[in-house]
Design a protein that fits this description.
By secondary structure, the protein is mainly β. About 25% of the residues are buried. The protein has no helices and 10 strands. A hairpin with a 6-residue loop joins strand 2 and strand 3.
Length: about 160
């Protein structure tokens, strides 16, 4: 699908322009404390002319045939360019987490690591995360590693989404 940079996109987030739009696809998840699973995902990166992107992700757990079984994770937040290839991201989750991420943008590749993770008293233990988003042959590919429930930082989620 053809992509055009919006004329009203703020100059500060121009290096993130390749993320803009709505994405849909599937992924897999695994972690030592849970069973492996598949999921369907919608992601939106939008802007309103100010120097940030709004991010929203919604997932559904899927069965072996790819059919939706139940709602999955939700997250929303904001990505801001911080100059010289640096990026800041703030995310919130309905499961009781708020995170601050720092990272770098290098062409069509965004890498991020958590700096602060705040959680409610009812949220599960989660202590660190790393994310990588990349544009590969027109698709949004990503990987998410986490440290949680006493486990060291390791692979948790990965997905491939197409611009819709």
């Amino acid at each position: 699908m053809a992509f055009e940079i919006p004329p009203d996109l703020h100059q500060d987030v121009m290096p993130l322009a390749w993320l803009l739009g709505h994405w849909h696809g599937n992924g897999r998840g695994d972690y030592p404390t849970i069973e492996e699973f598949g999921f369907e995902q919608d992601i939106a990166f939008t802007h309103d002319t100010r120097p940030f992107l709004h991010y929203f992700s919604q997932t559904w757990i899927t069965d072996e045939d790819g059919d939706r079984v139940r709602p999955g994770a939700l997250e929303t937040g904001f990505i801001r360019a911080a100059g010289e290839g640096k990026v800041e991201m703030v995310l919130a989750h309905p499961t009781g987490y708020a995170e601050i991420w720092y990272g770098e943008i290098d062409g069509p590749r965004l890498t991020l690591s958590t700096d602060v993770i705040a959680r409610t008293e009812t949220a599960k233990e989660y202590t660190a995360g790393q994310r990588m988003y990349g544009l590969v042959e027109g698709n949004l590919m990503y990987a998410y590693d986490m440290a949680a429930e006493g486990q060291p930082l390791q692979s948790h989620l990965w997905g491939k989404l197409a611009r819709v």
